[in-house]
Design brief:
This protein is of the alpha+beta class and about 500 residues long. It folds into 3 domains: about 140 residues; about 170 residues, no CATH class; about 110 residues. The chain has 16 helices and 9 strands. The strands form 2 sheets. Strands 1, 2, 5, 6, 7, 8 and 9 form a 7-stranded antiparallel sheet that branches. Strand 5 and strand 6 form a beta hairpin. Helix 4 crosses helix 8 and helix 13 crosses helix 14. It is extended. The relative contact order is 0.07.
Length: about 500
């Protein structure tokens, strides 16, 4: 029956029952609205208020506190293990530089170079000699790599232009840009006396030379991990020494780098340590994963409840008031804290599974595991702010951050346009005359340091004065950047946060 029919019946009702039925309907609607209002109020209560209202124990709150503890313990454990890996890599890299680079010193790591043809041959010969004598000179447990019964050789390769002739005196050149490569192999364990004075067995074409690379592979085992109840890893170091002559400036830079692979040792025996102690962390990681899965389940259920209540609220509002609910009001039902916790749980669960695989020596993706566990733990600790928000005096920080965030994003976008303009200008103009402006990445880091007042004097002082116009431009460039960003942009940014804080503080009162 539609509304017009009801109105007609009400008009022709001799007993006057229409007003009574309307009163009953209004009372039922008010009761329904009050019930729905209480439902909304309870949904937006914090766990402490819910416990006070219905004596409902805050299981999610208890679980989150427990999760913070176990995840932090897990991260510290993995951090100590990863620290040993990183330290072992860095110490081996420094060892290889001292072993295979002639006259290497730590202070000359970035400037190690040769300037004569004789020095190039001498340095390559020195590297080959040290490689062949490695078992008798190293203080570590470094060994050559073997493929079956054959040792992996050391390779010396030169890359050079296919053909060409240069005549700087006549300002003429003819270059074929196709690159050729010649290599020579030297096997370990061969008598050193059989080597000739020139181990290359070919002549370097310095006029067309681009680079000389010396490559070889060594193996080692990190025994330090045994002291911390972990099985040692077997390391494969693919070492490459590069003599870079691409600029043809008369200076050939020398750089040693290594690509590290971490593998499970195929045959091992450890005495004096209980195997149970070595796998106890695996059981702990399994417990952490179970706690995280329970947290993920509870938070997902809460998000689902919020989404369902959002649709119920929109339908109720449309039916009773004939209005649509705005997007911002809909988003109030979806807690950003739960989304943050869900993301952190997924990252930490993935990182924990990867950590178990690493501890079982099935793979060695330490970097990926570090990113997952580190990011997950960071989000977990940021989520602590949600619990601090239950206290009125601490809630002002969260409210200020949430209120200021949109304005901060808009302000940062505007400031980024100016910042990028200075980055491009500094790179193209000052790059040839200052080491801090050679690449876009370095320029951005240098300018960000200047904003924070770091290394300011040396940035001004180290500018080369070969071109007076560029030197004068650099002064104008640096003075305007410092004045604009430190005195204006940074001050406006702080003012933006301060004004939002004052506004929220007044509202809180």
């Amino acid at each position: 029956m539609d509304d017009s029919s009801e109105a007609y019946l009400c008009i022709n009702d001799p007993n006057g029952n229409c007003s009574e039925s309307h009163a009953v309907l209004e009372e039922e609607e008010e009761e329904e609205e009050e019930k729905f209002r209480r439902k909304l109020k309870y949904f937006f209560m914090n766990p402490c208020d819910k416990y006070t209202a219905r004596r409902r124990k805050p299981w999610k709150l208890i679980l989150q506190v427990l999760k913070i503890a176990v995840v932090t313990i897990q991260l510290v454990s993995f951090g100590l293990s990863n620290q040993m890996v990183v330290q072992f890599k860095e110490e081996n890299l420094m060892t290889f530089r001292h072993l295979f680079l002639k006259n290497f010193s730590r202070s000359s790591a970035n400037t190690h170079a040769v300037y004569t043809q004789h020095d190039v041959y001498t340095h390559i010969t020195y590297t080959v000699e040290q490689f062949l004598m490695l078992p008798s000179i190293t203080v570590g447990n470094h060994e050559y790599e073997k493929s079956g019964e054959v040792y992996t050789p050391l390779s010396i390769c030169q890359q050079f232009y296919h053909n060409g002739s240069l005549s700087p005196a006549n300002e003429s050149f003819h270059i074929d840009t196709h690159v050729d490569e010649e290599c020579s192999l030297i096997y370990p364990r061969q008598p050193f006396s059989t080597l000739t004075a020139n181990p290359l067995n070919f002549t370097l074409h310095f006029e067309r030379l681009l680079a000389v690379t010396v490559k070889f592979t060594l193996k080692s085992i990190n025994l330090e991990t045994v002291q911390y109840h972990e099985l040692p890893d077997c390391y494969v170091f693919n070492i490459m020494i590069t003599f870079d002559n691409k600029p043809h400036s008369g200076r050939i830079g020398i750089e040693l780098d290594n690509d590290v692979q971490i593998n499970e040792c195929s045959d091992w025996t450890v005495t004096g340590a209980s195997p149970r102690d070595m796998y106890i962390m695996v059981l702990f990681d399994v417990m952490v994963i179970l706690i995280l899965l329970l947290s993920l389940l509870l938070c997902t259920r809460s998000v689902k409840a919020g989404v369902l209540l959002q649709f119920e609220y929109a339908a109720f509002f449309s039916r009773r008031h004939s209005k649509r609910v705005s997007f911002s009001e809909r988003m109030e039902f979806i807690s950003g804290w739960y989304i943050l916790i869900i993301i952190s749980d997924v990252l930490t669960i993935t990182g924990s599974l990867l950590k178990i695989i690493i501890q079982l020596k099935a793979m060695a993706s330490y970097d990926l595991c570090s990113i997952l566990l580190g990011t997950g733990t960071m989000f977990v600790w940021i989520g602590v702010l949600r619990f601090m928000g239950y206290l009125k005096k601490y809630n002002i920080l969260i409210i200020t951050l949430r209120a200021a965030f949109p304005n901060v994003i808009r302000f940062s976008c505007c400031a980024a346009m100016i910042y990028l303009g200075y980055c491009f200008c500094g790179w193209i103009v000052l790059g040839p005359y200052h080491t801090k402006f050679r690449t876009l990445n370095v320029v951005s880091e240098s300018l960000f340091s200047l904003i924070n007042g770091d290394d300011m004097f040396s940035t001004f002082k180290n500018m080369q004065q070969k071109s007076y116009v560029v030197w004068l431009f650099s002064r104008l460039y640096l003075y305007t950047f410092v004045s604009l960003f430190i005195y204006m942009v940074l001050s406006l940014f702080i003012t933006l946060i301060t004004d939002t804080y004052d506004t929220m503080k007044v509202r809180e009162r």
